[in-house]
Amino acid sequence: MGNYFIEKSLNNNVLVATYHGDEVILVGKGIGFNKKVGDIIDTDSVEKVYELKTFQDQQRYKTLMDIADDEVIKVVIEVVDKIKDMIEEEVSDTLLLSLTDHIIFAIKRMEDNILISNPFSNETEALYPREYSVASTAVNMLNERLNVYLPESEVGFIALHIHSSISRQSIHDMNLMTEVVAKAVQIIEHDLKIEVDKNSIIYARFVRHISFAVQRVMANDVAPEQRNLENLLKAHYPVCYNVAIKIVKMMQTLLNKPVYESELVYLTMHIQQFNTEALDV
């Protein structure tokens, strides 16, 4: 199987090592105690191994380790370890690279008083509530351990990295999803002259529907046509139906793919729920 050779000790529980020439991160209670560079690590003492498989990822991580303080690297590894413990599904080891990269530059921006807003925080929380909750824990841990004050907006960004490492979706695709949701809500609020309650069950259902709709579009799946129901909704709820048409056109533009008319039925029903809720207030 081969041996792990120590390259660098971050603390008693975290080591940087080489394995068959590749750099890995080893985590284990007391694994680095009284160890020095070049020592061989007993595999029985290793609890977790973070392996960056591609040469590009390995080189990127080495660069990050060179530019970042050892304490930052150590705490990020502990945060990723915590995230893996909190998420039941398999989390890709690439999270270590993406989160290290993100956090190093988030701290640098904070030190330079450069604030970056996250306009899709609400949408991210609605789409990925579990990941958002875990990300909130991660940000609190980073702030406490590194004595920094990463803003609330970072929770949404880190939640996307977590979901990406689970779903193997790209950050670009997930940003696209949140943008579709945000623009759809903007269209509804503008045309119906209402303010959508983003803490409501109706909003949560709408976000889930848009999420599935985007996934269908990207996979070129077609929902079954319901012409009779579509004509009925068009006649009874013309304003909501027209809003649905606008949302479909927006989706086609952002996704650069056709959105089939069958989506209009489901969208109209969801939009009508927003309209009904506003009238009941």
From TrEMBL:
GO terms for biological process: regulation of DNA-templated transcription. Residues 67-172, 173-281 form the PRD domain. InterPro entries: BglG_antiterminators, CAT_RNA-bd_dom, CAT_RNA-bd_dom_sf, PRD, PRD_sf. One of its GO terms (molecular function) is RNA binding. PROSITE patterns: PRD_2. Keywords: Repeat. This is Transcription antiterminator. It comes from Macrococcus hajekii. The lineage of its organism: Bacteria, Bacillati, Bacillota, Bacilli, Bacillales.
